[in-house]
Structures are given as C-alpha cells and as structure tokens.
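3.2 Worked example (two chains)
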Amino acid sequence: MSGREELRFQRGDAVVTGAVILAALCCIAAMVFAPRPERTVARVYLKGELIRTAELGKDDTFTVEGEYRNTVVVRDGSIAVTESDCPGADCVHSGRIRTPGRSIVCLPNRMEIRVEGDGLELDAVVR
C-alpha cells in the first residue's frame, strides 16, 4: 500500500445503507397507507344562504336562480360555472376549481361556490 488504505465495504457501511433503505421504505409505507382525506365538497351560497352541497366526486349539473341564472357543472372532481347571464360573466371565466379553500363568486347574482375538505393546500404561512 502506498500510504492509502484500501477502499472496502465495511460493516458500518452496511449499517448506514440498511438504515437509509429502511427509512425510504417507511416513507413509502406512510404515503401508501396514510388515511385519505375526507370527501371534498362544494358549498353553493345564494345571498349568503347555503342552497346546495355538491360532492366533487359525483358528476352533476344544476342551475342557481337569483337575479341572474348560473349553470354549474361538477365533473372530474372539479366544479365550474359554465354559463351565466350576468353582466361580465366573471364567474364563468373563473374556470374549474377543485382545491379546498378556492371559490367562485358571481357578484351580480350574489352567488358563491366554496370548495371545502381536508385537503387544504396552503400557498404560504405568515408569522
């Protein structure tokens, strides 16, 4: 040997490798067997009063009638206002939503759709 030890796989290397593999398997098991969040629902309010609850897992189409008319479609785990006769139709341009905490609002009709559930995704936390 020329001043350097030979590089060989030692017993400590096997322990560390085993610990890393075990930690990886525990992480995978935690993701696979973690409890699933409760169902995600959309609550539809008209003039501040709850008028309907729609489960996002079930396809549905309904109309919300107030001063104006909004057609609401639940499909593929999301909800959207697809038609509206209100001025501007901003609610239609809101697109499809599925994430808890998101909402669609039609101000002229005083209608709001809120998605609620356990899967709340946060953009940021401020302290």
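3.2.1 Second chain
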Amino acid sequence: MKKWLAPLLACLVLGLMVAGCGDDDDSGDSGSDAATTEQTATTEQGGGADSGGAAAGEPVAVDIVDIDYEPKDVTVAKGETITWTNTGDLPHTVTKDDGPGPDFTSETLSNGDTFEETFGTVGTIGYVCKIHPQQTGTITVE
C-alpha cells in the first residue's frame, strides 16, 4: 500500500505544478490585456493630437491607391486638415486645380509618403495628380 502512496503523491504534486503553470498563462493573457490597453492609449493619444488641430470631428484621411483618391470626394469643416497617404506602388501628387483659398501642391509621393493640408476657406476645391491628370478629387469645405 505504501508503494502506491509515493507515486500518487508525486502525481498530485506534479498536477499542482502544471496547474500553477496554467495560472502563469492566465497572467500572460493579462499581458495581452496590457498590450491592448497600451494600443488603445496610443490610439487615443494620436486621435487627441489630430483632433486638437481640427475644428471639429475626426481627422480626414485620403488614400492614394492605383490611380485613384479614396475617397474621391471629401467634406471637411473649415480649419480641418486632410492627410493623403500613398498606399500604392505608383508615384503621385496632390495639387489644387481650382476653387477658393490658397494654392497647394505636394512633392511627388512614393509608397508610404503622406501630405497634409489644412483648409480655412469655405467652398469647393478641385484637386488633381500632376502625374496622372485623370486622377481627380473634390474637397468641400463647410
């Protein structure tokens, strides 16, 4: 009978150790929660900084994909900033074509490059890519 007791106790101790390791995994999940919290805090900081420069609402983003602005037509409040990001493989520009307010033009944007412009004059502004003249967009400033 004593021969069975030692292996049984050893198995119980081993089982408790494995269960203890499982608890460590749970604290690892806790680490995932911490990472999520960190990501949320970073997002909130970024949003706060961007929102501080804008008159109202969230910052406006336009992607440049292939030979198109997405979205092609955007509406912003007076004082808001638009950020264009080239997410495609071709080079592009963002250049005012017509409308109120000062002229603007970006340098040639490669993949990953961004260009920002803040709009302080109410009206409708047309813009174009100087490299691809068929690539156009419209900004309505309210």
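3.3 Remarks
Confidence is low (pLDDT under 50) at residues 16-55.
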